[in-house]
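Side project, low priority. Logging it here so it doesn't get lost.
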Amino acid sequence: MTVVGQFGLSVRDQALEADVQNGLSAVEAGLLDATKSEVPFIMEAAQHLVRAGGKRFRPLLVMLAAQFGDPHAPDLVPSAVVVELTHLATLYHDDVMDEADVRRGVESANTRWGNSVAVLTGDFLFARASHILADLGPEAVRIQAEAFERLVTGQILETAGPRDGRDPVEHYLDVIAGKTGSLVAVAGRFGAMMSGADESVIDILTQYGERLGVAFQLADDVLDIASDSHESGKTPGTDLREGIATLPVLHLRAQAEAQGEAADLELVELLDGDLTDDARHGEVLRRLRVHPALELARRDTVRYAEEARAMLAPLPQCWAKAALEELCDAVVHRAG
């Protein structure tokens, strides 16, 4: 059994390991090539997060999905580069919106160069992704455009909040299905589609990717509260500080409203206060880390990961399917 990729997936077959490792290496080279510029400053900013590393979760899914067709098809690596570039571009924008200081264990672009440069660098990456995408054909362009629309819609809905009478938890799950699930779904779809897999397989891996993407984001929500910066690569409690109500917080609010326990109401009051104050922020983190709401969020993570695993049932048993199943376990493991 060998660990491949920065996500730490265990692979038990040498041929699969070689395909995935070679594919991910080619994607890494493709990312550096796609972020080159004749202007040194632009290239430095564009490659800032590429060189910082990352899990390469989406390219990994592209390579695994390709095993159900031709894993050496020429459009696989470019499609994986497109998906990862798009993801990286959203991180530049997210860090501006969240006023984040750290990303992937390094200084965030907005902290280093300011918000304007960070936003424009994200736009630069979107442009480079579109350039590569154009060579993959109109169907790929349409798929990516639809996913990007969902991603932006999810971000807007998060900013706007749930409409009156809407369950905040349901609203939030819709938000992350758009913000995160849509692009992970594209990774599964591109891998299967570019490899020439059957339409039924393409559909299965698209739906698998969507559910796995939601589980991945829910695991991040848990990590934002439960981990230290060494584990998550960013400052713990960033979402809390910026007033973003992730799933553990939403579960806390629902429990406080339903049961009216004094300790829960007090914690909600702390959440609603000024969390730019380090002492208050630290107290909220400490209490949330031992609150049942965090465990509820972990259970939701497991539920979506298991839904993703169930989608794989019709696929033939093979090493690639086993690796996709293990990817579900790896996502859950991140949430503890």
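Brief comment: The two ends are 22 Å apart (CA to CA).
Revisit when time allows.
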